[in-house]
Design brief:
Elements lengths: L2 H4 L10 E6 L4 E4 L1 H6 L17 H13 L2 E8 L2 E11 L5 E11 L10
Antiparallel strand pairs: 1-2, 1-5, 3-4, 4-5
Length: 116
């Protein structure tokens, strides 16, 4: 698999964590912030992301892969709030290639705009 074609270099230095897995739930890419976030677990490339998720989360992951869907939620850990966006990614022939998760730290005060 040509990761440069799937995920351009710009993902490496983003100010959010980007983690990508294939359809077997094997982690195939982690950007700099994703690697820093999970550094205590060692090198996770090639490892199953199912190993570090609860049974409830595993079911969500499997459903996203089966349907090509998306999942979005917020978390708070050690006083840091994040929004987590998970979505299927697709090959050029439109088949599901796996999942990508983007984790963004939310500021304490965040404006909300309603646009029409």
């Amino acid at each position: 698999m040509n990761l440069e074609k799937i995920l351009p270099d710009w993902a490496w230095g983003m100010n959010c964590a980007v983690t990508v897995c294939d359809t077997e739930c094997k982690i195939i890419y982690m950007n700099r912030l994703s690697r820093e976030t999970f550094a205590k677990h060692g090198d996770l490339i090639g490892k199953s992301l199912l190993d570090c998720h609860s049974p409830r989360s595993v079911e969500i992951i499997k459903n996203l892969l089966a349907t090509g869907g998306k999942n979005c939620y917020t978390i708070e850990k050690k006083g840091v709030r994040k929004i987590i966006f998970q979505t299927a990614w697709r090959h050029e022939d439109d088949t599901i290639g796996g999942l990508v998760e983007i984790s963004i730290v939310l500021p304490d005060e965040m404006p909300h705009y309603v646009r029409e």
